[in-house]
């Protein structure tokens, strides 16, 4: 008499706010994935709006994957992400895959994640994100792609744009039961803090998997230099906040060490930023094509130096929440 082996469960979590057309594009790319034979897959959409905004036509898809839609009225990305983690915990999922609503995935994206689940000895996987830049992109913004480490190697890319975590991370019966930190709810940087905490406090190191590919377009207000400058300031300030949280959690609150850390980071950014700006100006003067991109690279480094000011005075750059409408909602 044979016994039926229970399939492992995968939750694909999507947090969305006012991006129905982009969400539909993502869902269609997920529905193009082959159904894995040994896994139960469920798609979860968390609609992070004051009132429900995901309309029935957006989620009208063939009967292929189970789909759940939850409304999260409390604004902010951390509220939405933690709602996903709670759902995955309640469902007793083995793996949670996270993907941003403004991306779409390659035809073998899910299959490649399953290869990673079955071959990598890790609880956190960060997968590849490719960026498509609009022709209207500011000439001071470098058209760059993330430099990919080798498959299966520990990664310093702490991003939730395209990632997966096992229940050893989020389920309290199997590990630390981690959640995203609320102080990053409106500023962003919650993904960096989450994965750094997993590594430093719980010995859960993230590994990189370049074969499960998501793609994102850089269009709309994201083509402006000011958009990227603002995000660089916010990202660096969030890193300082994360470092302070972890020092407190470990009892290592040396004022001297913290001050030296801030000075080292700021001085390094000032030196590199000034150098890149001067090099870029020189390139512009002699007619080099990429001169303005090099100046932009220097200005972004100076943005990281400037970030010490909002961090020290406790100011937050608001990137998410009730007062921020989603970009590229059409």
Overview of the structural elements:
With 330 residues, this protein is α/β, with parallel strands linked by helices. The chain has 2 domains: 8-222, Spore Coat Polysaccharide Biosynthesis Protein SpsA, Chain A, CATH 3.90.550; 224-313. The protein has 9 helices and 8 strands. The chain has helices at 20-31, 77-90, 109-119, 167-170, 190-202, 225-250, 255-285, 291-306, 308-313; strands at 8-16, 39-47, 66-71, 95-99, 103-105, 124-133, 162-166, 206-218. Strands 3-2-1-4-7-6-8-5 form an 8-stranded mixed β-sheet. Strand 1 (8-16), helix 1 and strand 2 (39-47) form a beta-alpha-beta unit. Helix 5 packs parallel to helix 6 (225-250), helix 6 runs parallel beside helix 8 (291-306) and helix 7 (255-285) runs antiparallel to helix 8. The longest helix is centred in the last third of the chain and has 31 residues, at 255-285. The model has no long low-confidence stretch (mean pLDDT 92).
């Amino acid at each position: 008499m044979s016994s039926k082996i229970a399939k492992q469960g995968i939750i694909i979590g999507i947090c969305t706010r006012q991006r129905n057309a982009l969400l539909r594009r993502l869902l269609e790319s997920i529905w193009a994935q082959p159904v894995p034979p040994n896994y139960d897959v469920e798609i979860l959409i968390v609609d992070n709006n004051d009132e429900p905004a995901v309309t029935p036509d957006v989620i009208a898809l063939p009967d292929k994957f189970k789909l759940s839609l939850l409304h999260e009225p409390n604004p902010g990305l951390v509220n939405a992400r933690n709602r996903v983690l709670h759902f995955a915990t309640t469902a007793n999922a083995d793996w949670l895959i996270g993907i941003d609503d403004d991306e779409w995935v390659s035809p073998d994206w899910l299959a490649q994640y399953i290869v990673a689940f079955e071959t990598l000895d890790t609880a956190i996987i960060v997968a590849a994100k490719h960026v498509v830049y609009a022709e209207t992109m500011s000439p001071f913004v470098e058209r760059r792609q993330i430099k990919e480490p080798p498959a299966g190697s520990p990664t310093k890319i702490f991003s939730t744009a395209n990632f997966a975590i096992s229940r050893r991370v989020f389920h309290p019966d199997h590990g630390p039961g981690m959640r995203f930190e609320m102080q990053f709810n409106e500023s962003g940087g919650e993904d960096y803090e989450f994965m750094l905490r997993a590594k430093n406090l719980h010995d859960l190191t993230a590994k990189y998997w370049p074969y499960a590919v998501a793609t994102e377009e850089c269009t709309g207000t994201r083509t402006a230099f000011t958009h990227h400058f603002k995000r660089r300031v916010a990202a660096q300030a969030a890193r300082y906040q994360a470092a302070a949280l972890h020092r407190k959690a470990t009892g290592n609150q040396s004022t001297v060490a913290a001050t030296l850390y801030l000075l080292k980071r700021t001085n390094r950014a000032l030196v590199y930023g000034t150098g890149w700006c001067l090099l870029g100006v020189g390139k512009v003067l002699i007619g080099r094509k990429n001169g303005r991109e090099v100046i932009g690279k220097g200005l972004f480094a100076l943005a990281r130096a400037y970030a010490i000011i909002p961090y020290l005075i406790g100011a937050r750059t608001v990137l998410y929440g009730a007062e921020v409408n989603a970009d590229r909602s059409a």
